[in-house]
Target: AcrR family transcriptional regulator
Amino acid sequence: MGTRDEILDAAADVLRTQGYARATTRSIAQVAGYSEAALYKHFADKSAILLAVLHERMPQLPGSLKELIGNPGSGTVRGNLTRLARIAIDFYVEGFPILVSLFSSRELLTAHRLRLQELNAGPHRAQEGLILYLREEQKLGRIRRAADVPAAAALLFGACFQRGFEVNYTGATPSDAETGKYAAALTKTLYESLRPAAAVKSDG
Model:
């Protein structure tokens, strides 16, 4: 692992525990075990560090979505949604303290938005990917033809975001089992609104 990676690891820890406003380049450098001068060889300022952490140290959703989209008809719809929900919950729980930092500065939020546009990325991409997956499953008859898949995608990610907010607000530390149970309950309820009438209840 090189200097830049070690600085990003330290920055991710500092930002999660102190927030963007209180974090300083000095504290990040100290946690990483380097001087501020070494830090500035890799990053122009604290904003650049935050953007790098967001893009390189946050749990990523796209990979999982690509797996789902690339394999419509594999596994079960309910099982696939449960796996995605679990990843999304982890993403929002871990990322919430960092994501909220974006709104501490209009300039920072604008820079982040522009960077995502360059990458053809953004919070809408995960939902669009899930909609695409669900529509493919509709074509296969594994989801009701009349189901509103955009609404279903919004509900899933909205619930996962809310879970991330709740965990960070309360300071709770759910176990893996508790998170898995929550994801399973969430997708069970969602799947009941999506499954074809002819599908047996054990599906998923």
Summary: The mean pLDDT is 87.
